[in-house]
Amino acid sequence: MACGTLTDTYVAAIQHGLVDLPADATRIGVVRQPTSWFHAAVDENLPELGPPEPLLESVRDAEEDMKMQGLCEEGAHNAAWDRVGFGDAYRDHLESDDSARAAVETLSERLAAGESLALVCYENTEKKRCHRTILREYLEQ
């Protein structure tokens, strides 16, 4: 059985031609609240695979705290992830939320059928940690 490829990137990389995605890859947005310009860069969006709002709020609050302590934006973002246990909380969301579980199952089936997928959100992971990296690893398992 053919297996599709799985990659990930961020929306600005697509918009500015900074990423070389497989030509046949379906660009799947994985954000809760996409903007119109985000929609224009992806083929579809699965908001149920974005982090839950309470988790995003806890990261934002912790990030503001860290910035007040003098950390740069990227440092504050990454430290906030650790403080709130983002990785474990997001994996728990993927396993416990019915709509997230269904979306993961659908993407897994699409990959197994040979479709190539590129997960897309807002963060440049060269500097900041991002849920789509966790999602990609989760799908690869």
From TrEMBL:
Domain DUF488 residue range list: 22-141
The protein's name: DUF488 domain-containing protein
